[in-house]
Specification:
The complex is a heterotrimer. Chain A is mostly helical. Chain A has one domain. In chain A, the strands form two sheets. Chain A has a two-stranded antiparallel sheet. In chain A, β1 and β2 form a beta hairpin. In chain B, 38% of the residues lie in helices and 27% in strands. The radius of gyration of chain B is 18 Å and the shape is globular. Chain B is an alpha/beta fold. By secondary structure, chain C is mostly helical. Chain C has a domain of 199 residues. In chain C, a hairpin with a 2-residue loop joins β1 and β2. The longest helix of chain C is centred in the first third of the chain and has 31 residues. Classes of the chains: A mainly alpha, B alpha/beta, C mainly alpha. Chains in contact: A-B, A-C. Chains A and C meet through α5, α10 and α12 of A and α4, α9 and α11 of C.
């Protein structure tokens, strides 16, 4: 494609790097750094969920945090009620996926345009934020779990080895899980995009009218893509909840959705590696900025978003790919 | 071919309004199996709007569309396509960012499972003389080539009814000649409706012609009769 | 009876404040099809301008009604020249860039004023209706809201500038053919929209304490009011402000303000699903 490497080799390279990081990192860094890296991976997974629906499905969702937050809260509430984590883990992926399917069906079968889609997804995330934020009162309980409003939910049972509630995952095991899931989701999506379904999804992004005239039900495909994105965002939410053993309404916040958009647009649309690179780069930058107090973090992220839209509308990875292939031709 | 087969497509009092403007006004239209029908008329006569009501791209305000006696009024474009109708739109509508081969695959993948579609894709590229272009991005091709890709995609799915909206637009003389031959070839297997502007082209392929004027059918007859008709001349040349 | 008066005043107040919050965005979206996600920050900047001016000894009405719109209008002009003008016709890119701008402005204000709440007190005393205590400032907001909408309507309909602006939005080729530079018209329209946002931000500043993130509270409300209203600037904004203001206030009075907001958002989602072109797309097409 655009880069000098063939597509097959590029994916082998990604796989190799992924496996080296998965196996190698816990040996070279201390546990604090490993924890820090785990959150990067969680964010990368969240970025991948948006990168998939936006870059490949052509659906720009301004409220992707709705599914991330739903995953995090579903896990927390279910874990408090159930204890053993396997059920809550699955539920926290399925529920956001189902919610995305429902919301997507409403929007796509209603044939809303891109702009209205952006507004509705943003508003839905905001409704969830406002609702959860206002549940501080003790009457808001689901089973044994208090929703806690703006105080959030602390101290729920974290992930354990499947079936054994007595052996929770250690920080290094959390890292293996997150990294393993990221690699699995990356190649899962890669496989999906090469399948008949994935090729039709990309075709719909290219030309919706033609896809319809060929007999593909665009509404159904888009709903499915949106649901898959919701499920992956939910998975990222579960890992996020477990990482800090805490969830608060901020997971639904506009800032969370905006950050995801920045990761994806910086990394680049239309690739799967772009969102991952974008998330890691931007989070690294955020960490650096957090260590000083002169320049505000939001200020820098905002400036980056404006500049990328104006100067690098394709994002980092596709632009890099173009530069590389141009360099080779000379 | 002037077969007088069974009625395969029918509209009854089909009407399309945009705000206060009536673009298609109570049109009764009948198409028989095997026909090659041209829809003509000056700009704004309503033929393209009528066409889009048949493809499902517009939902008619009133009236009915019957496909093989099945009520399909207001169906989605994908349902029309699933009913075996192939559509080529006015401006080439193809997947510009994808290769010619991928475009053809997508045209076939709705009817065949993945692996069979893959095999048929290569056959179809040979059959429609697109094999040389197979790895080119469609967006990088010349206008005439893109038209060819689109027609090939439409026909490859073996629709029994083919709808073409101004297929000759923007083509060179040689390309138009080749197109006329292609259309006659397609018509051997499929019934066709062609919206066209170019009178020369209509004479080349023409059989039965329906003339639209101000949203209604002005006259419907054989091409020679229609083109000699005083009202048709007036509509085209007068005013 | 007293309660009925209170309910009516509260509903009118909710409608007027929604119209104020949405006015600047309505002008920019309705005339230019630009969706400005930094709109909330323009309001927030209007509020800060008013507060800083009052604290510097300027009369509160001058601060709210004159200084705030001028300062925010100037900021709008800079934003248009540096960012927006490169993105006309690219709606999604404009949304993304202005979202970045919103973060940037929030960060900037945080760096200058710190992440703390500031505020000024309302300049009008409260009054009583029977057993109920009402805010006198709410009446001022009702008046301001309707005056601003009337002003936009009159300016678009009866002034030469309004006529040219409407003409340019219909056909920029035509306008340039007649010797008006569309770039210049866009620039002025965006600046006016920003100034209106500054005005609204100034007027609303005494109501609540301001923080750098206040804009986020405004933007969603402004958005759904404008988008649900549809393309007609005044008729659209007023009709959806009336609808949503009433829903919010009725639900708020019967439960809590949070549920009022949630009810408004849910109503907006349903409305957009039913009328994808907004209220005026369906019922008042071709009006201002």
């Amino acid at each position: 494609m655009t880069s000098g490497l063939s597509e097959r080799n590029r994916h082998l390279l990604v796989l190799a790097i992924g496996l080296v990081l998965l196996v190698g990192l816990p040996w070279v860094v201390d546990v604090v750094t490993l924890l820090e890296l785990t959150i990067y991976i969680v964010y990368a997974l969240f970025a991948l969920s948006l990168g998939f629906i936006w870059g490949h499905g052509g659906i720009l969702c301004f409220g992707q945090a709705a599914f991330f937050g739903l995953g995090a809260y579903t896990y927390a509430v279910a874990a408090i009620n159930v204890g053993e984590s396997s059920g809550p883990f699955l539920l926290a992926i399925l529920l956001p996926a189902a919610f995305a399917a429902l919301l997507g069906a409403m929007m796509f079968y209603g044939r809303l345009s891109d702009v209205y889609l952006g507004v509705i997804t943003l508003v839905v995330a905001l409704i969830l934020f406002k609702f959860v934020n206002s549940t501080a009162n003790e009457t808001y309980v689901i089973g044994d779990a208090r929703l806690g409003g703006f105080n959030g939910i602390p101290g729920f049972p974290t992930l354990n080895w499947p079936g054994d509630a007595g052996s929770p995952l250690m920080p290094d095991e959390m890292f293996y899980l997150a990294m393993g899931l990221l690699i699995a989701v990356y190649f899962g999506l890669h496989g999906l995009l090469r399948s008949r379904f994935g090729r039709i999804v990309v075709a719909i992004r290219e030309n919706e009218t033609r896809a319809e005239l060929l007999g593909y039900d665009v509404r159904l495909y888009k709903t499915a893509v949106f649901a898959i994105g919701g499920g992956i965002a939910g998975l990222a939410g579960v890992l996020f909840a477990n990482w800090g053993n805490f969830v608060s309404p901020g997971v639904f916040g506009l800032a969370q959705s905006a950050t995801a958009i920045i990761w994806v647009i910086v990394g680049g649309l239309g690739t799967l590696i772009g969102p991952i690179v974008g998330a890691v780069l931007i989070q690294f930058l955020t960490t650096l900025l957090g260590q000083q107090s002169v320049v505000n973090n939001a200020f820098v992220l905002g400036a980056i978003l404006v500049l990328v839209v104006l100067l690098l509308p394709k994002g980092l990875m596709p632009t890099l790919g173009q530069l590389l292939s141009r360099g080779r031709r000379k | 071919m002037s077969a007088r087969g069974e009625v395969v497509l029918e509209t009854r009092a089909l009407t399309m309004r945009f705000g206060g403007v009536v673009a298609v006004d109570r049109v009764d239209f009948t198409l028989r199996d095997g026909e090659l029908r041209c829809l003509i008329g000056p700009n704004g006569a309503g033929k393209s709007t009528f066409f889009k009501c048949l493809t499902g791209q517009l939902k008619p305000s009133a009236g009915e569309v019957l496909v093989r006696e099945r009520r399909m009024t207001g169906a989605e474009p994908c349902q029309m396509a699933q009913a075996g109708i192939g559509v080529k739109t006015q401006t080439p509508s193809v997947f510009n960012g994808l290769s010619v081969r991928e475009n053809m695959f997508l045209a076939l993948a709705r009817h065949h499972a993945g692996r069979i579609a893959e095999a048929r894709t290569d056959e179809a590229l040979e059959r429609y003389a697109l094999a040389d272009l197979r790895d080119r991005k469609v967006g990088e091709l010349a206008h005439g080539q893109r038209q060819r890709v689109e027609i090939a995609m439409v026909v490859a799915a073996e629709p029994w009814l083919v709808l073409l909206d101004e297929p000759a637009a923007g083509m060179t003389h040689e390309e138009v000649d080749a197109l006329a031959a292609l259309i006659r070839d397609i018509n051997r297997r499929s019934t066709m409706i062609i919206v066209e502007h170019d009178m020369q082209f209509i004479r080349m392929i023409g059989d039965r012609v329906t003339v639209f004027h101000q949203g209604a059918v002005l006259i419907e007859d054989h091409v020679d009769t229609v083109l000699d008709d005083a009202r048709v001349r007036e509509v085209y040349l007068g005013s | 009876m007293d309660f009925a008066v209170v309910v009516i005043v509260e509903i009118l107040y909710a409608v007027a404040s929604l119209a104020l919050i949405a006015a600047g965005l309505a002008v920019v979206f309705g005339m230019m099809r630009v969706i400005n996600l930094a709109h909330g920050e323009f309001l927030m900047l209007g509020g800060y301008t008013a507060i800083v001016s009052v604290k510097a000894g300027i009369n509160i009405y001058v601060a709210m009604l004159v200084v705030a719109p001028i300062v925010v209008g100037a900021i709008g002009l800079i934003v248009e020249r540096l960012v927006i003008r490169f993105l006309y016709g690219r709606m999604l890119d404009t949304m993304l860039a202005t979202w970045g701008l919103s973060l940037l402005l929030t960060g900037l204000v945080t760096m200058i004023f710190g992440n703390t709440t500031t505020g000024i007190s309302t300049p009008i005393a409260g009054y009583r209706v029977g057993a109920y205590q009402l805010s006198g400032y709410n009446l001022f907001i009702i008046a301001a809201g309707f005056l601003v909408m009337a002003g936009i309507l009159l300016a678009l309909r009866y002034t030469r500038a309004g006529l040219i602006a409407r003409g340019a939005m219909q056909s920029s080729d035509m306008a340039s053919g007649l010797g008006h530079n569309p770039q210049r018209i866009y620039m002025i329209t965006f600046t006016v929209g920003a100034a209106l946002s500054g005005l609204a931000g100034g007027i609303l500043a005494p109501l609540t304490g301001l923080t750098p993130t206040t804009g986020g509270l405004y933007v969603a409300k402004a958005f759904i009011t404008v988008i649900s209203g549809g393309a007609a600037v005044v008729a659209g904004t007023l009709s959806s402000a009336t609808l949503f203001g009433t829903i919010t206030q009725v639900v708020t009075l019967s439960s809590t303000p949070v549920w009022g907001d949630v009810a408004m958002l849910i109503a907006a989602v349903i409305l957009l699903r039913l009328l994808p072109q907004g209220i005026t797309g369906r019922f008042f097409s071709r009006q201002v």
